[in-house]
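User: Please predict the structure of the protein below. I'd like the answer in structure-token form so I can feed it into my own downstream comparison script.

Assistant: Understood. Taking the following sequence of 422 residues as input:
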Amino acid sequence: MNFTVAKGDFEQNVTITFTADETYDFVTLNGLEPGVYTVTENATPGFAPIGDVTKEVTINLPSCANSVTFSNELAGQPKVIVQKITYPAEIEGSAQKGDWNMTLYKMTAPERWEVVSSLMTDSIENQNVLVGEGMLEEGNYKIVETMKDGWYQSGKTGECEFEVNYPEDLFRQDYSCTYTNTKYGKVIINKLTDPVGMTDKFYFTQNIDTSFDLNLTDQGSKTFENVTPGQYQVAENDPTPEYGLIGLTCEEGGVDNVVATATSPEHRLSTINVDPGETVECTYTNQKRGMVEVLKYENGSLEYTTVWNFSLSGDNLNVADLTPPALMDFDQAKLIPGNIYTICELNAQGMWVNTWYKDGQAVEYYNPNYDPNLPINDQDNSTRCVDFSVESNQTVHFEIYNDYVTGGEPRTIGYWKNWTTC
């Protein structure tokens, strides 16, 4: 048996070894200074102390000697103890280690096991006693837990399977088994569109469940259940040019967050860190882009005697179109809602009067070549433009009328300089 003798900075361990049938022995320490010492008996498997395990002893001059006595008794037959560890330890303030069914089985024949005892683990106490002292018979045993839905076994340590033989195991330490369980997480992916109600499908890559092809429409949602805690990635395939991603958010709940989830909207990527028992919900919002159409009239007709040229520019876009046909859409260019674009009629010819309508309302055009430093007669007014923007999923309609009028709209010297030919 082992003891620790200490005073201040002084500390020394001593051991008393008993021989067979010996019930009393002692050890002597020499060279100690006078003073008050503490002597602590360290636990010995199979024995239980009688009385205090720490005692004080004083050494005084002139004798410089004293003694201290400890008594022990056999600890008795071993108990069978099971312990429970869970991740997370708590959910919304409620301890999770309670109410797990544990069963002790004994082998009664090869491959045949019978129930010895069972219990529901306590939510407060760490040790749950399956068999008390003096109740364990010889034989082969195993401790089995009943799994709860939404959990998995992530560890098992100690003596969860053991054999009892007497008298060797009569006074040994208790048989102890520890089960560790981890709660699965959950991942939810949502899809929203602006405007609401779009029927297009949006496709994703993900490594949560590679057997599942993830695609969603507006208001759609996919829930991945029983997700093993760890890091996962979900990325939306590039929806341009029809759509643009305008929102990517992830919310985490259910347990205390350990490792945060991160989003990268520029890559349409969610790096999802699922903690034990956590629910991570990510929402992707896509906005439908707009378009513009121009319907060109010449003298009130959709039949032309000349070619009419137009340009569409803005936000890194520069597209040209011309008549015929009468309805131009600039190769169905997709326009980002809220951004400013410019549509222009180019090389407007002399003796034609322009009238512009946007979505049925008359609008005024402007001359982008206007130079306030030049006299009016030197201005070039052959280009006529209107600025506009679109809303989500909107097609802006322009109607542009060019009417030939004898003596018509005056052209400046600058215009005729541009159009003079020989």
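That's the full token string. Residues 413-422 have pLDDT under 50 and may be disordered.
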